[in-house]
Give the backbone structure.
Amino acid sequence: MPLLTTKGLSRHFGGLRAVDGVDFALMPGEIRAIIGPNGAGKTTFVSLLSGRIRPSSGMIVFDGADITTMPAYRRVRLGVAYTFQITSIFANLTAFDNVALPVQRTLTDGRSKGQVRSGVMAALERTGLADRAGTLAGHLSYGHQRLLEVAMGLALKPRLLILDEPTQGLADSEIDNFITLVREIAKDATVLLIEHNMPVVMQLADRITVFNSGKILAEGTPEQIRANAEVQDAYLGATHG
Amino acid sequence: MRDASPAKTYALHVGVIALLFVLNFILPDYHQGLFARIMALAVFATGYNLLFGYVGLLSLGHAMFFSAGLYGAGLTVYHLGWGVPEAFVAGVACGALLALVIGLLALRTSGVAFMIVTMMFAQVFYLLILYFAAWTGGDQGLVIQQASRVISIGGASLDLTNPAVRYMSALALFSVVLLVTLAVVRSRFGRVLVAIRENEERTKMLGYDTVANKLAAVVTSGAICAASGAAYALLFGYIGSSFASVQYSILPLLWVLLGGAATTLGPLVGTLFMYYVTDITSGFTSAYLLIVGVALILLVLFAPKGILGSIRQRWLGWLP
């Protein structure tokens, strides 16, 4: 049974159909990448899943429950975590306090046990930020800010972690670490990522969904997508044409 | 909240309270009276700071919470003959209840709209006090007799009109509120409040019901401000509609800005500073408000984060 499904999910902004009747299913434990040209509706689609915006029509089911109209903060408590496309950490708080917020949330919800401090340090160690716990988040390098964002997502103990362009702005050396990290996260969570960096997508994803003009253009394994002529026209057009 | 060492922080706050305690025996009569007034009003500023400094919600209507406490305590003593402790509790309860209702309505807005909505509600409250002048005394106000301002515990009695008792009562209230505020801002709840101030959207996406948290902050802030108002009525024996006017919504904002928003001791420092600048300059010239104004402008120009805010930024990063 899929962890998450959408039926006829649509979101219109005025006349623009940003997301247009999408039927989508995500199996537990998989790493799914969403790719597509700019303006294809990828970010709008995952914003609908996380509850940041409401759909115009359609339905979202998470773990058997209809969450279409559920407010975002309650979806987070069910285990749907979202990390922002534009780095959205609390710049004036320390790295420690940034991660303490999601940790104390899971403690309050009874989804984890123990002390705030130990939970925070575990999440910071996993992302290699432990020695920067006392630094103001705004003073971290850009790459570290992205990692902090991931640490906050991790600390929510998500069952579904949505990453919106997580490798944007990372150096090549940091990307290798990041791939290792996502593989590790995927051991206990389902990962849905929007990603432009094709080598990262090809290495990480079990399956790929291609968006174009608010609709799903194709879906399949990395090999199938690479061989798909339609996808090449819409998205990889420049490389063969 | 950076590199917080609890021992140092609590030592500082207990030290400030101890200093205020000692001042009772040192200060000349006039200054003793002024300090009692300042401490009672610093509670008002502290309550305001919780909402403005930590949650980032700028209310222009906090005079209604202060005067809800003032009238809640004053009218129950005046009309119903209640004792001081019951009247104080009644005042705080009125403020908390009013804050709950206003919070539910005003939190549907944010930013400038929140400022305007809170200001409008405070204005309604002010006009209601004038309208029900038969009970409230309107703009003349009411004087609470000395005999009603005595607490009797067993055989002993505490006369709140006695300067030393009044000073110690104001200090007791201020100390409790200061330590409670310190505990709140260092708690998990306090961390969420600061997160809402910094980025509400992100806080929601970490699973927090930000509206419920903001409402809790409005009620806490309203209750503290009402405690200040109730204490003011019982300690100084006068309740009047001027305490509900817009001036008393602006004053706590000024005190907090001067002392340092989002610092636990800033409200006391700001209230103290403003009172003494006014007091000293009015001894020299009738144009003292001009000098107060210049002092405010200088402070905003050279220490925009307020007195303690600037000290924290430059020297003492650990200041809560």
